[in-house]
Design brief:
Helix 1 packs antiparallel against helix 3 (105-122) and helix 6 (208-219) packs antiparallel against helix 8 (264-284). The protein has helices at 8-23, 32-44, 105-122, 142-148, 151-154, 208-219, 221-224, 264-284, 304-318, 337-342, 370-382, and strands at 49-54, 58-64, 72-78, 128-134, 157-166, 174-175, 179-182, 184-193, 197-198, 233-241, 248-249, 252-261, 288-295, 300-302, 323-324, 345-351. The strands form 4 sheets. Strands 1-2-4-3-5-16-6-15 form an 8-stranded mixed beta sheet, with helices on both faces. It has a 4-stranded antiparallel beta sheet with strand order 10-12-8-13. Strands 7-14 form a two-stranded antiparallel ribbon. It folds into 2 domains: 4-182 and 299-382, Zn peptidases (Aminopeptidase, 3-Layer(aba) Sandwich); 184-295, Alpha-Beta Plaits. It is an alpha/beta fold and 387 residues long.
């Protein structure tokens, strides 16, 4: 297993790549300059098998090891940024107004490029590795689209691995768990129809604003009074739209919410019970409900053998005391889940230190984490090495 010191020679170079990417963030599938930068770097490493244009702007490079026949494992990094105005004041801050790498995808991309440079030079492994640079993670679409376009079969990928930096975890430490590690994501709309009228005469209306408020209150009991306290489900209703006037009770209001769940059973429960709750509360007031539910990103679920391989790679780099094998699941979602549905694999967290949180305008990726990310990728691939 490699140690962090093995990557000291390329650390400064990778920092340069990361800070360049940070200054020129791009959104969604429109990561054309980022993808071009990635493809050019990969070619400069002497990698011959590079394919572009997957899911519009995705890039995949395949490196063949010198250790003989073996499987192809996939390593994935995301490339897109967020529509946020940066406030860090760093010398490498975003040069694009209203866009910034507030989730560290610049660091993810740079670390996978660093691993690619090292692996292309040494090739100390069996089989092949596919370096996957994905667009549109923040949209929750890019990973699924790459899978739909044949990513796994096209590159004969047998296992897939992902990584995300995590503020609050010390640099040089990792977090992982077997099974559910990130939540499934659903969205819903509840359209409440009553009978509008003048705000001075609410007694002749069926006020959908009041009905909507009662539905929001009732939904809070789905978790607190229907589930075992050890089970994880989040139902939030951050949208409530109704009249634009102080004096008009509208005919309809619309509630918009999100569901985060850590099991298929909880996901099914939420979809069914939100509808029942909304319809029954509305009926009690003489109102009607139209319910719309959209299942978006699936559960991010680590397969046991892949989790063991990922854990061993991290421990080999930093030692067992710096790898938390039972990190608590987080209720945010990750579209890498689509790749884990297509192939066995695992996802882990890399410490980013005491930085601002993800999606915060004051966030920045901690460059001291770079050799840890590179080393983890290399150890994972070289587990089938010749030495």
């Amino acid at each position: 297993m490699r140690t962090v010191d093995d990557f000291s020679e390329i650390h400064d170079e990778v920092i340069g790549w990361r800070r360049h990417l940070h200054q020129y963030p791009e959104l969604g599938y429109n990561v054309h300059n980022t993808a071009r930068f990635v493809a050019d770097k990969l070619a400069s490493f002497g990698i011959n098998h590079i394919e572009t244009g997957i899911a519009e702007t995705g890039v995949v490079a395949v490196i063949q090891g010198n250790g003989g026949d073996g499987p192809t494992i996939g390593l994935r990094a995301d490339m897109d940024a967020l529509p946020i105005m940066e406030t860090t004041g760093k010398p490498w801050a975003s040069k694009i107004d209203g866009k910034m790498h507030a989730c560290g995808h610049d660091g993810h991309t740079a670390m996978l490029l660093g691993a690619g440079k090292y692996l292309a030079a040494t090739r100390n492994f069996k089989g092949s590795v596919a370096l996957i640079f994905q667009p549109a993670e923040e949209d929750g679409q890019g990973a699924g689209r790459m899978v739909q376009e044949g990513l796994m079969d096209r590159f004969n990928i047998s296992q897939i691995f992902g990584m995300h930096n995590m503020p609050g975890i010390e640099v040089g430490k990792f977090g992982i768990r077997d099974g559910s590690i990130m939540a499934a994501l659903d969205e819903f709309d509840i359209i409440v129809t009553g009978r509008g009228g003048h705000a001075a005469t609410p007694h002749v209306t069926i006020d959908p604003v009041v009905v909507g408020a009662q539905i929001i209150t009732a939904l809070q009991t789905l978790v607190s009074r229907n589930l075992d306290p050890t089970e994880a489900l989040v139902v939030s209703v951050p949208k409530f739209t109704g009249s634009e006037s102080y004096h008009i009770i509208p005919d309809t209001v619309t509630l918009g919410g999100t569901v985060r769940s850590l099991s298929p059973t909880l996901r099914d429960f939420a979809e069914k019970q939100i509808r029942i709750c909304a319809e029954n509360v509305a009926a009690a007031f003489g109102a009607m409900v139209e319910y719309r539910h959209r299942r978006l990103e699936p559960l991010t679920f680590n397969q046991t053998k892949a989790t063991e391989a990922a854990t061993a790679a991290a421990k080999g780099l930093v030692g067992p005391d710096s790898v938390n094998e039972q990190i608590k699941p987080v209720m945010v979602s990750e579209d890498f889940a689509y790749m884990l549905q297509a192939r066995p694999g695992a996802f882990l967290f890399l410490g980013n230190g005491a930085t601002a949180g993800l999606h915060n305008p004051g966030y920045d990726f901690d460059d001291t984490a770079i050799p840890y990310g590179i080393g983890y990728w290399v150890n994972l691939v070289e587990a089938n090495g010749v030495n």
